[in-house]
Amino acid sequence: MEIDIRRGGDSMIITLRGEFDLKTAPEFCRRVDELELETTPRVVVDLKEVTFIDSSGLGALLGRYRDLSSSGIDFALAAPSHTVREILGIAGVCRVLDVYPSVQSALRSEEEASRADDEH
Amino acid sequence: MTSTENSNWMRLELAARSENVGLARVSVAAFAAEAGFTLTQVDEIKIIISEAVSNVVLHAYPGCSEGTVVIEARISGDMLRVRVRDEGVGMEDVERARRTSFSTLDGRMGMGFTFIASFSDRLDIESSPGEGTAVIVDVHRASSDRDPDPEDGQ
Questions:
Q1: A59: distance to nearest CA of chain B, Å?
Q2: Handedness of CA B113, B115, B116, B117 (dihedral sign)
Q3: Contact B97, B52 (CB under 8 A)
Q4: In a domain, B1, yes or no
Q5: What is the residue-wise DSSP string for A37-77?
Q6: Is B108 assigned a catalytic role?
Q7: Which CATH number covers residue A46?
Q8: Residue A44 lies in a domain
Q9: Dist. CA A74–CA A93, nearest whole Å
Q10: Is residue A15 part of a domain?
Q11: Domain of A44, in residue numbers
Q12: B29-46, pLDDT tens digit by residue?
């Protein structure tokens, strides 16, 4: 699995490509754990090019969600394929995590939330 | 081209290591595709195999890097039966392992058997302490993919 990490506005965007399983999940966890996120309000994981995910990949996502949200950082998923969405649904991940149809919509949602905060 | 044979089998023996999980699922997926299983079913079979083999890698041989996993798949008519077995430590409580919960390994989901059960028509687990574990899964071939997703392809 390829892992690209870049900034998009205030957010950190992690783009994954390939198969997310027992072999590749540890590398994802390590890369996320190494990020310096003190001033980052949100991490978005772009799943568009993830061709396979199983419970090892889901466990890695939920583990990072747990760690980052305890530090006050939003953690959202974007652009899962049909197959990946089905797995997220069976696992109930969509009830816990924000899942957006695209990275752009995830970033827009963050901007809107930020504006709403400013207005209050 | 899809095989018209109504029976076929394969057997794969691998070191129980995480780098072999992908090989195991791709091999069985190719076997099922050749037997006429739909694209959706082939995707689901990949998950079944990935979960079953990952369980072996994670749980069967604690503290030992020399374990093996054997994957046998057989087509009989419209049914694929896959057996994933190891010669590891086995399980005391099979029913507990089947329940969705957090795994005995810290930070893992414990959803492997839930996924396997969701995508199969039958799931049996044969295991006892010291005797290894066999996971046996049946999947019946569908005539066509169900529920195409309108959101895909955008």
A1: 5
A2: positive
A3: no
A4: no
A5: -TT--EEEEEEEEEEEE-HHHHHHHHHHHHHHHHTT-EEEE
A6: yes
A7: 3.30.750.24
A8: yes
A9: 15
A10: yes
A11: 2-115
A12: 999 999 999 999 999 999
Per-residue pLDDT, B110: 74
Residue in A27, A51, A56, A66 to test binding to B, most B beta-carbons within 10 Å: A56
Give the largest Cα separation in chain A, rounded: 46
CATH of residue B69: 3.30.565.10
Residue A62 at interface with chain B, using a CB cutoff of 8 Å: yes
| Tally of domains in chain B | 1
- What stretches in chain A show pLDDT beneath 70? 113-120
Tell me, yes or no, if A19 comes closer than 8 A to chain B by beta carbon. yes
pLDDT tier at B145, thresholds 50, 70, 90:
confident
The CB-side HSE value for A74 (13 A sphere, CA atoms) comes to 19
Nearest CB among A52, A81, A101 relative to B46 is that of: A52
Which chain A residues are within 8 Å of B109, Cβ to Cβ? 55-56, 58-59, 62, 91
**More confident call, B135 vs A112:** B135
Q: Over chain B, what is the mean pLDDT?
A: 88
**ipTM value of the model?**
0.89
